[in-house]
Design brief:
InterPro entries: Dev_Signal_Modulators (IPR050969), EGF (IPR000742), EGF-like_CS (IPR013032), EGF_extracell (IPR013111). This is FBP1 protein. Helix content is about 0%, strand content about 30%. The protein is built from no helices and 18 strands. It has strands spanning about 5-10, 10-15, 20, 25, 35-40, 40-45, 50, 55, 70, 75, 80, 85-90, 105-110, 110-115, 120, 125, 135-140, 140-145. It folds into 2 domains: about 1-30, no CATH class; about 30-145, no CATH class. It is flat, with a radius of gyration of 18 Å.
Length: about 160
Amino acid sequence: CENGGTAVGEGCVCPPGYNGTFCQTGDPTKACQNGGTAVGTKCYCPPGFQGPLCEDPDPASACQNGATAFGTVCVCPPGYWGEACHSPTNPFCSPSLPVVCHNGGVANLTECLCPPGYSGPTCETVDATDQCADGSTAVGNRCICPPGRSGPRCDTQ
C-alpha cells in the first residue's frame, strides 16, 4: 500500500486524500482540510473545525484571544486559559517574560507543551523513551494510533 495506506486482506484501506487499489491516486476532494491531520483513515481536526474531513467551521471550539492551534489543542497566550483560551486569568499570576520552547514545543503560560520524543522545561532534551511508536503520528503533544495499536505512545498491540 502506498501513501500511508493499510493492507487489509488483498486490498488497502486508504488514508483521507487517497484512493485506488494501492492508495496510489491522490484525491484532493477526500483529503483532510483546514489543517486537519490524516492518521489511518481518520482526520483529526484543529480547533475551530469539525466533520469527517475537518470541512465544517466550528466557532465554539476555535482558539480565541490570540491562542495558537497546536495539533488538536489550543495553546493559550499569557493571560488566558481554558480549552479554547476564552477565560482571562488573574493578571497577578501571569508570567512577566514569555517562555521560549524548542523542538516544536509550544509555550503555554509558564511552561512548554513538548511534542512526543522531547522533554525538559523548554523541550530541549531528546527523550527516546517518549516517542510515538512506529506507524503512529505525533499531533500536538500526543500520539495518534493506527488501527490495532493503543496506549499513550501507541506501543500496545
